[in-house]
Amino acid sequence: MIDPIDRLAVLAAALPGSAVGQRHIAAPFDAVWQVIADLEQNTPRYEPGVAHVRVVERDGEFLRLLVGDTTGRESPMEARLRPGWCLMQSASIVIAFAARDLGGQTLLAHLEHRRDSDRPVGVAKIDRELHVIEGLAQGG
Amino acid sequence: MAGNLFEVPANFPDVDPESVAAAQQGDVLALDRLLDELAPYVRRLCVRIAPAAADDAAQEALLAIFRGLPTLQAPEAIMTWVRSITVRTAIRLDRHQGLEIADEETVMGRSDSSHEGLVDIDDALARLPVSQRVVLVLRTKEGLSEQEIATTLGIPAGTVKSRLHRARAAFREGWES
């Protein structure tokens, strides 16, 4: 199976205008992935536009979510989640995380793509979120 | 022995054209599934055509395929399109890495000592120049006709025929030495 970091690069190639960032995180893979995989608990902690996430259906790797934003609007998303790979999409946005175990450290990559190309995501936002995730993975 | 040059060619992955169309329209979960379906085939071709550069060739080919997916006019033709991109990428990467140790004219004259340690068919194939290796792989391992190889490589069918002839002779010499 293709490495998740390489997989995210291929996904980015298919989504022109997407913002992608990477960070070497000083925490083990399992700790980092625990943060990413707990979508309900942790997404609102690193994604400033999200107020809450509810998993409404789970079928193996495939999930259906309801995501509430900070304006009170709730949108459906579908996702695929497995160790090292998380891909989510709604009508307006695509979000992906990929992680590679570096032996005690973790390379984490993050992609966001707005389908409305008039409002592209900035790389600075990606970097901020990766920084927050690092803090969470380190027990912050 | 690791391989049989005359094995029954493996078929293409069974890719649903509707899934391809969904991926083209921006369904990223369909894109993700398509990647699952294509990646093993792309990697297999790259291992056979550019064995020493297979990882880089497979990743570059997948990047080119998914970057170009919106331009694919006929979803039902995706596998011939994928094959063409992958083969050309593998040839380029093999040449780029300078792994081709002899050109078509000199390979026939290699000393016998160059074949020491020859252990299997894949090893014999890897010792051919890429221009010969690719036609032999596509003909015998992938089961393509000479015309299909010509279309894949963008060269005349007559050139395919002559390269196949030289490749078989070079392979036989390497194998029997």
Task: Give a description of the structure.
The complex is a heterodimer of chains A (140) and B (177). By secondary structure, chain A is of the alpha+beta class. Chain A has a single domain, classed as START domain (Alpha-D-Glucose-1,6-Bisphosphate, Chain A, domain 4, 2-Layer Sandwich), CATH 3.30.530. Chain A has 4 helices and 7 strands. A 7-stranded antiparallel beta sheet of chain A has the order 1-7-6-5-4-3-2, sandwiched between helices. The N and C termini of chain A lie far apart (33 Å). With 177 residues, chain B is an all-alpha fold. Chain B folds into 2 domains: 87 residues, RNA polymerase sigma factor, region 2, helix turn helix motif (Rna Polymerase Sigma Factor, Chain: A), CATH 1.10.1740; 77 residues, Winged helix-like DNA-binding domain superfamily/Winged helix DNA-binding domain (Arc Repressor Mutant, subunit A, Orthogonal Bundle). In chain B, α2 packs across α4. The relative contact order of chain B is 0.14. Chains A and B meet through α1 of A and α2 and α3 of B.
Share of β-strand residues of chain A: 35-45%
What is the tally of helical segments of chain B? 9
Instruction: Please provide the ordered H/E string of secondary-structure elements of chain B.
Output: HHHHHHHHH
Task: Give the biggest beta sheet of chain A.
Answer: 7 strands, antiparallel
Return the CATH architecture of chain A.
2-Layer Sandwich
Rounded to the nearest angstrom, the distance between the terminal CA atoms of chain B is: 16 Å
CATH superfamily grouping of chain A: START domain
Structure summary, number of beta strands of chain A: 7
